[in-house]
Each structure stands twice: as structure tokens, then as C-alpha cells.
Amino acid sequence: MQANKLAIRPAGADSWPAVEKLFGPRGACSGCWCMWWRLERKAFRRATAAERRDGLVKLVLGGIGFTENGKGGTPLAPGLIAWDDGKPVGWVCVGRRSDFPALASSPVLKPVDAEPVWSIVCLFVDPKERGRGVARALVAAAVDYAGERGGRIVEAYPKDERSGKIEAAAAYTGVVSLYESFGFVEVARRRGRPIMRLGPDASAIPFQSGSFS
């Protein structure tokens, strides 16, 4: 498989069987079902894997809110699916930062400033398809998806692989080098965790480190 042969499309009402097949019985990772950032931490931990799955089902079937201008339009997809010859091989969760309440409550990943940003919060690639450029193709598609819907700034919250080996399961937000290859720049770092941005004047944002106020 070559990444340039992938078809990447928003997850819509007809996509649930593909999402379920891709994520498998473990819901991608430990019953998460890509709800880690969409729920406050206490709510996530209270929820069973089945309840998290049901939450994602509702989002895939019904979409999320409306387009950025708030005046209606096509509901936003909860994620994008990478397809290879009709088979789902990868997923990226991208949306408005406001769609992910766990980011706002995180002392490490809380907002850098008041700019309205879009966030890439999760990447999942079929283990059998890893190392073939799927994640890179998904990030490119996520950036395009945000831009086409009015997103001027896209944020990512990768792990820094330069600080030591990272297991695949822990790299679900991507790694620094992946985002650097698209021109993302680091705009904040708290407790060793970078926040990176791509968009207008991202490099001009004052770098922040260790600020928890």
C-alpha cells in the first residue's frame, strides 16, 4: 500500500461499520472509542467501554454541531477515515478545540491563548498497516478538513520522541517529527509536553514553558 493511494473521507452516517471494524473489540485502545478528549476526565472514567462506544456511535451517525459560522450547514464529522481498496486502515480525530472539553481542563494542554483553533487529538492506524505513511496522510487530510471549514490555526499535542522511546499505544496523538514535517511549530511546552501549531503567524506566538496559571 502506498499512502498516495489512500482515500480519506469524513466519517458519516454510513461509516459506523467501518469505524467499528477498524477499532476492533478494544475500541482502538482499552475501550476508549476515541472519547478520551470528548469527555471530562471524571465522566470518561465513570463510563463503561460500551457507553463510550455508544457515544461515538451517536457522533458518527449524527455529526457534531454545525459549521464554524454557527449559521447551520453540514454537521462536522467526529473524525476522518483512511481507506485502502475499500478497507478502513486509519482514523484521525480532528475538530474545534471547543469540542474537546478534556483539553480545556488539562493543566498541560489548556489553551495557549484565546485564538479559535482546531485540534488534532488522536491518530489510530491498523497495526498491520503501520509504517506505510497512513498517519502522515491522515494529518494532511485533517489540516485540509479544518481549513475548508474555516479553521485558520490547527493545533496538535504530540509526544516528543526525542525524549526517549515511545510505545505505539502512547503515541496516539502523533510525534513531534510528524508535525514538524508539515510546518507545525512548537508554541508551548508544559511538563515536557509540546503544543504545536500550523497556521497564520503561529511562529510569532510567544513560546510558553511551564506556565500553569
Distance between the termini: 47 Å
Q: C-alpha Rg, in Å? A: 16 Å
Order of strands in the sheet with the most strands?
A: 1-2-3-4-5-7-6-8
- CATH superfamily label: Gcn5-related N-acetyltransferase (GNAT)
Largest sheet: 8 strands, mixed
Total number of strands:
8
**Alpha-beta content class:** alpha+beta
Strand content: 15-25%
Topology order in helix (H) and strand (E) letters: EHHHEEHEHEHEEE
Inertia-based shape: globular
Mean pLDDT figure: 88
Fold-level CATH name:
Aminopeptidase
Count of DSSP-assigned helices: 6
CATH secondary-structure class:
Alpha Beta
Helix content percent band: 10-25%
Give a structural overview.
The chain is an alpha+beta fold. It has a single domain (3-209), classed as 3-Layer(aba) Sandwich (Aminopeptidase), CATH 3.40.630.30. The protein is 24% helix and 21% strand. It has six helices and eight strands, in the order E-H-H-H-E-E-H-E-H-E-H-E-E-E. The chain has helices at 16-23, 41-46, 49-62, 101-104, 134-148, 176-180; strands spanning 7-10, 80-84, 87-96, 118-125, 154-156, 185-190, 193-198, 208-209. It has an eight-stranded mixed beta sheet with strand order 1-2-3-4-5-7-6-8, sandwiched between helices. It is globular, with a radius of gyration of 16 Å.
